[in-house]
Every structure is written in C-alpha cells, then in structure tokens.
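Late entry, evening session. Most of the bench is empty. Finally got around to the prediction I had been postponing all week. Sequence below, unchanged from the version circulated by S.P.
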Amino acid sequence: MRIPDWTPDAKPQPQDLVDAVLRRRGGALLNLDRALLWSEPLARGWNVYLGAVRTGLPTSRKLRELGICTVALLTGAEYEYHHHAPDFLSAGGTRAELDALQAFCKSPAQAPRGLAGDEALVARYAAQMTQQVRVDEDLFAQMKARFDTTEVVELTATIASYNMVARFLLALGVTPDGETRML
C-alpha cells in the first residue's frame, strides 16, 4: 500500500466506528479498511453505504457481483476481483462464467462469449459504464426492457460504486495481501 496501514496508535478512531467495520467484516479488518480508517467520516460513510450496496439490495446478487467483477477486471483492481469473484461464485455464478468474463474484459468490443442472457447484458452495461462512462441508448434500452426500474437503478449504483472503489484501491495501491490480520 502506498500509505501506512491504519492502526489505533497512528490515528485513534472512535471504538464504535472500528467495531462497526469489524462487525461488517466478520471480525477482521481488510487492507481497504486500513486505508479508510485514516478518515473517520470517510470510513463511517463507506461502511454504511457500501454495506447497503453489498448486502441491502434485493436485485440479483449474482448480477451485482458480475458487474463488480467486470469493473475489477477492466480497471485492473486485483483487490476488488480477489474479493468479488468468490462472492459471484457463492451467489450462483460458475467458474466458466468467470472465465468468459475474463475473456470478454480482454476484448470488450466483442460480444461476451460464454455469458448468456442477463449476464451478457450486465457485463456489457458494466463495461460501457466503466470505459465510456456514458451508456449507449441502445444498450440502456435493452436494460430497461429486461429489468424493472429498481433493478436498473440498483445495478447502475453497484457498478458506479465499484468504479469508485477500484479507483480508490488503485490510487492508494491497496493489495489483497495480509487481509487476515486482526486489530
């Protein structure tokens, strides 16, 4: 990481904040948390907001994780992919779909081979959001035809949020190493 790991000695934070992060993470801080905890307001907001995006939305978890993995692969955010590929699999995705997504992200101008239906559509949508920022009218019309408004909003927010996460991770050089360290 390009910055030192946060520690309670380096920058004391309120215990309720540290406890909230630990609770969301299952008892261990991740390297991402060790960067965020340098700023109390940022860590609080991130914990609540990204917690809601990860676990509070009713839109398909598999499709949300697929969107996140697309962002991670296209931006080179290894940390993000390291965490979300297993979540995609546990949400019902397959190794073959991840392999197809990796191939698609190497040549996103091509149709995603090995991804069908909703998965192909969400991968294309995430790729346009990540690479072009603006989404073509035709692709957006396909999203609206397939998903209800809430699903379009939630998929869009998930993809947009994880573009933010990727940029934060990459700028600070946050790596997946040593994530099991306990506070």
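Two things to note before I forget:
DSSP finds nine helices and no strands in the chain.
The CA atoms of residues 69 and 85 lie 6 Å apart.
Will write this up properly tomorrow.
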